[in-house]
Structure formats: C-alpha cells, structure tokens
Design brief:
Number of helices: 2
Radius of gyration: 18 Å
Low-confidence stretches: none
Length: about 80
C-alpha cells in the first residue's frame, strides 16, 4: 500500500504580483498610456486582476517606441 505524501511545512503563499505581472514603465506625456495607467490602477483597487494585467501588458506593448521616463507601476500603488 502506498502512503500519502506528507509535508513538514505549509506551502508558501506568494503575493499575486511581485512587480512583474503588473509592472511597466509609463512614458511621460502619452495620453494612451495615461488612460491605460488609470485603468490599471482602478482595476487593482477593485480587485480585477485580469483587467489590471491586460492594461499593464498593453502599456508595455504600446510604450516600446516611447522615450522612457520611469514612473511608479500600477502594482506599486498604496493610496
């Protein structure tokens, strides 16, 4: 008979985002990126993780041609 596997510790629970899922560099002065940034921040506050990810991914894809001036990513919002 096979015994079930027993672990000595509980599994490690990681936060949903360590910066890579919602992380992006929002270029200064781009209206499209500003709108997407607002959408990502609102989605995070509402707990809509898929919407937040999609907005962040769209900013990463859209901002490839921009001059990059770093601003805080949506995942780092505390207020």
């Amino acid at each position: 008979m096979i015994d079930s596997v027993r672990y000595s510790q509980a599994p490690i629970e990681r936060p949903l985002d360590d910066g890579w899922l919602y992380g992006y560099v929002k270029p200064h002065g781009c209206g499209v990126c500003d709108a997407l940034d607002g959408q990502a921040r609102a989605a995070i506050q509402l707990g809509q993780h898929r919407t937040a990810y999609e907005a962040a991914e769209e900013i990463r894809a859209h901002s490839d041609g921009h001059d990059r001036t770093p601003t805080p990513a949506a995942g780092t919002v505390t207020s």
